[in-house]
Amino acid sequence: MTVTSPTRPAPRRPAARDTFRTTLPNGLDTALVHVPGAPLAELRLVLPYARTEPGLRPAQDLLAARLGTATTVRDRQAVADRAADLGAEFSTVVTAEQLVLSVSVPGEELPGALELLADLLLRPSYGPPPPPALTATAPQPPPGPRTRLRRAQLRRAFGGPHPLVDDDPGTGTAEVDLLALHSRVIVPRGAVLLVLGGESTERVLARVREELDAWSGGPSGLVLPPFPRSEPAPGRLALHDPSTDQALLLTAGPAVPAPDPGHTALHLAQVVLGGHASSRLTRRLRERHGLAYAVDARIRQNRAGCWLEIDCAGAPGTGQRLAEEVTACLAELAEAGPTPREAYRARRYAAGFTRFALATRAEEASALAGFAAGGLDLDWLTRYPDALAEVTDAHIAQASAHFLAPARTFVATLDHTADPAPAPEGLTP
User: Fold this and answer.
1) For residue 299, what are the β-bridge partners?
2) CB within 8 A of 404, min separation 6: which ones?
3) pLDDT digits (tens, 9 = 90+) for 236-263
4) Which of 28, 133, 179, 381 has the fewest other C-beta atoms within 10 Å?
5) What is residue 67's DSSP assignment?
């Protein structure tokens, strides 16, 4: 009997947007998105902010915490009052490689929000420096089990030294001129500003130029360098920590970033492997064996590199068994590929991902800003359903065979007991 894949659903595209992207004379990459009738305007300013200089990390943390709180013409209360008058919400988030300043404001108050943003960027105030006793940074506590495992995973898979794998020295000082640091790192060249709202892109661009043309400087240089190795070295690492209360597993396998050819087929193979509630790993580790209470597989991508990662957590003492079952699952999918039903479900899930990622204006703005900062086109996600529709079951099977082979995967575990068992078949210790 011949089994065929169910008919692939016609892709449902997220609504198209009127977009415009340009680079201002000061180097600011400016992306504008027009959503007719949108009641709110969303702004995202994405700045490179990787921890590439260990001695600067405490000061970076302090600057990120205090950025956007006061200016030379507005104290903290005045900034808060002005934001409240506008109905605006300002927030900052720091990731492994970026500082993201987000603003949500009623559409008619966008000019005022841009003026306040410019004031915070061009005329910051961080107040008088604190006493030396408060700026000295005490030795930091040792990193937790997950952090130690991740650093070890990336170090063994991709090599070092590298900011993502080097242990934090745990000492330093926050005694630094924050204004000087602001002038160095809060700069337009290398940054991305995205504005999404109901006003035309022409009018928004004129307002951005009016407020931010005087902003200057950069690039800051706080960008993640590439890993020493572009592809992870396969192998097996078992860490022992008597104090840990769970078994942890992380893998690093080869991958290709978006939008390179082959990424879409790999994405669908990753979904089959561990990207949703009916995935191979979930059924095997949770439902069949009861080994893990958290199972996930995803493609990780940043300036350092791109890799396929499996992340599992289970009861203490199960680390070696997790490694064995994950390796077996990888081998089965690499050898036989997904079933037609699995391929169909993966397409449905991936198509839904493109809609859920843009479910709200705030989520859409954050996603588009991330795409722009990552070098993707603003319409990459809206075009993704078309790319999914072009991937056949055979393409997914080929991607599984190429990228999921255990012999190309690095597997790391951390458990509370030493691991006397041999490495899983196909992996080198």
Assistant:
1) 308
2) 253, 269, 273, 308, 330, 333, 334
3) 999 999 989 999 999 999 999 999 999 9
4) 133
5) T
